[in-house]
Amino acid sequence: MKVIVAGAGRLGTQVAHVLSAARNQVTLIDQDDSRIDALHGRVPADLRVGDACEPGVLEDAGAHTADLVVATTGEDEDNLVISLLAKRQFKVARVIARVNDDENTWLFTSHWGVDTAVPAAAPLVSLIEEATSATDTVALLRLSKAGVNVIETTITPQSRAAGRTLTELAVPAGIVVTTVVRDGNPVAPAPDLRLREGDELLVVSHTATESEVHAVFQ
Question: In whole angstroms, what is the distance from residue 199 CA to residue 154 CA?
Answer without folding.
Answer: 6
